[in-house]
From TrEMBL:
Subcellular location(s) of the protein: Cell membrane
Names of the cofactor(s): Mg(2+)
Coiled-coil segments: none
Taxonomic classification: Bacteria, Bacillati, Bacillota, Clostridia, Thermoanaerobacterales
Membrane topology, from the record: Multi-pass membrane protein
Native source organism of the sequence: Thermacetogenium phaeum (strain ATCC BAA-254 / DSM 26808 / PB)
Protein name: Glycosyl transferase, group 4
One GO term describing the cellular component: plasma membrane
Amino acid sequence: MSVWILIVIILVFLLSFIVTGRVRKYALDKEILDIPNDRSSHDRPTPLGGGLAVAILFITVIAILALSGFVSLPLAAALCCGGLLVAGIGWIDDCFNVRPSLRALVHLVAAVWSLYWLGGLNTLNLGIIKCSMGAAGSVLAVVGTVWLINLYNFMDGIDGIAGSEAFVVGFIGGSLELAFGRPDLAVISWLLASASAGFLLWNWPPAKIFMGDIGSGFIGFVFAVLAIASEKSGALPLLVWLMLLGVFIVDATATLLRRIVRGERWTEAHRTHAYQLAVQAGYSHKQVTIAVIIVNMILGCAAAIAALWPKFILLISVLVALALIVLRAEVIRRCTHDQSSSLSVNI
């Protein structure tokens, strides 16, 4: 790793902070605001679209790295063109609102585009074996990419949580990629972490600007592409990336399944994720976000162990998933109890 790469990463962080400030001013001038409603976790109108800085800087630097030969052209095409699609529809949605069906279609096109340039996903490293999936693997990868785009958006509901997730996961993932001999994937991951950190300075509780769909969807997409590219390269297995993103994946997926089973209109906005229930129970945005950061650091340790002892990747992945499911259930139980106790006292 050369010094100029470190300089670029630091520069991206500084520019992200500066550009986010400009985006905030633009959003205030144009009244691009998130207006609180009964399903919101905030209580005052807040500028939207801070993720624009993350997307612009990330795509620009990746394109430059591709032209310099540091990042392969197929990987750059997957990240930049697919990322532009996701970020573009996200920005339009932040400004004007678009139909969910149109947004989903664009996400699907971006996912298919990225899988085409990555060469599909025909095998999956499970540690003890490599599972051959054929064309079904690519289909699952497309579905998984679309889901990660959307679940990251679902989890962007309180101050600091999505930005800190991107920073911590990006930093740890990049460090593991470098350790396993993929400096290009490491730099891509660190660039995302760096751009997210610059935005996070504005979004840390109490937030002065929100990421918006443009940022949350874009970050989810980049993580999906990174995970698939890493799996295909033989470096860091996809399961390790899923572990790193475990907090978001488990909470969003479990919440969605629960709403579907209950017959609720799962496409509507709600406040039933574990992190949202924690805020409703009286914990501050900062407390919940810091708790998620701590869990992410623990997941980073588990991911590193799994990467160092690849024969145990599947076992560790299952144990991590079970631990997160139990943790989520306990958080919901305690928060529901706290809310009920508070209501009883008020009555």
